[in-house]
């Protein structure tokens, strides 16, 4: 895998914060299982010595991630996360047609520490997400997801509880999208195995809004990466 150039990922920067558009397959922080692997924190520290990643995205998830350039800025944003003042919007492509109109899911999530997450009403921590359908295809739906809390896998598992698993999210039984399923008469060469349109689950952190050190709103939108754009283009063309 070609590692990204940090400067190319920046979509916002001031004296206190950097917002990058994280590519898929790059971890937010150091992972125990991937010692020595490039991640957003490592790249950020090469760019700005005191950089701290303020929140994380799953490795496969692309999109907006905020980095503080100094300890004061990190504390300032940490407090906003704690008080649920940071507004985040994700886009997901789910398998099937779903009409979500401000659907509120508040199912508690238990994280047993081994990247294993379950809904647990007794032991789980509070988790709340709002869902709205943005665009309908014949077999898929583009969904806007607004998490109120920030639990691990929250959007993914909350969608799965609605039987609307994110495309390609094997962990929650989401099936990948193949061109052969969309395009009539699509044939693949005999000795070739068809690859899914997206080689990951279709989830992107589209927008984030938080207050800067001057208490003014900072609102950032992260464009879709190439694979997400390609999926939507093909759905527009063959599944509209």
UniProtKB/TrEMBL annotation:
The keyword Isomerase applies. Residues 16-160 form the Pseudouridine synthase RsuA/RluA-like domain. GO terms for molecular function: catalytic activity, acting on RNA; pseudouridine synthase activity; RNA binding. Pfam families: PseudoU_synth_2 (PF00849). Keywords: Isomerase. It comes from the Bacteria. InterPro entries: PsdUridine_synth_cat_dom_sf, PsdUridine_synth_RluA-like_CS, PsdUridine_synth_RsuA/RluA, RluA_PseudoU_synthase. GO terms for biological process: enzyme-directed rRNA pseudouridine synthesis. SUPFAM superfamilies: Pseudouridine synthase (SSF55120). Belongs to the pseudouridine synthase RluA family. This is RNA pseudouridine synthase. It comes from Pedobacter planticolens.
